[in-house]
Write a structure and sequence with these properties.
Elements (H helix, E strand, L loop, with lengths): L8 E10 L2 E11 L4 E5 L6 H8 L7 E6 L2 E2 L4 H7 E4 L11 H11 L5 H11 L15 H12 L6 E5 L7 H16 L3 E6 L2 H7 L2 E6 L2 E6 L1 H5 L5 E3 L2 E3 L3 H9 L19
Parallel strand pairs: 3-8, 3-9, 6-7, 7-8
Antiparallel strand pairs: 1-2, 1-4, 4-5, 9-10, 11-12
Helix pairs in contact: 3-4, 5-6
Amino acid sequence: MTTQLAPAIHVQGLEKSYKELHVLRGVDFDVARGSIFALLGSNGAGKTTVVKILSTLLKADAGTAGVNGFDVATEPTQVRESISLTGQFAAVDEILSGRENLVLIAHLRRVANPGATADDLLERFSLTDAATRKVSTYSGGMRRRLDIAMSLIGNPPVIFLDEPTTGLDPQARVEVWQAVKELAEHGTTVLLTTQYLDEAEQLADRIAILHEGRIIVNGTLAELKQLLPPAKVEYVEKQPTLEDVFFAIVGDNGKGDSAVSAPTSKEHR
């Protein structure tokens, strides 16, 4: 009996350039099976490029990457059979109902009993009451939950969520967070890319900060907070937030329009 399972995702020395632009400069990380791993970084940090390489949509210039035990360069078919990818915008058909969307994908993926699969996912993502409504009537959070549900048809062991809450209001973001947590509870490995600090704090078992093409820190939230000493405010010890850690590591050059967002964080003293 093995004492430790091999990681669901293994990345070592990943490099990618577009002409003179070096997007990835030697990226290394592992993702444990059944965990939520957040790849945190500003716009343009290279998060989506990593996901595209891992999902076989893009070839790396150097380095190796494996998903579910398969090499992305030499075993792309097996990798694609092991994964599902959800992009920044919900890929749902607005003319169809929620249930019809799920049944359609189940047919395309040759899943046995598409109707039962659809009903199970509708219940799991709290969409049963809206099952027969056209998706055009759904809120942003409902569409995103349906999109994630569709990506789970066929039970892929690994799912990539590329900035899944972009453009959603706070309530919809919380709905999606709950859906993501349930993925890991059911044993799915989740690689989440995000520019939202509070999203990484809420969801991730481990967080890696990608900055200028490199992973500059990788650990649990508690480990990352230990990188900064607690601040003392009015004799009360204040623990650093993930936002404190992020900007202390990458510097202030990340601030501005392309900065990582923390929409719910409080103003710091």
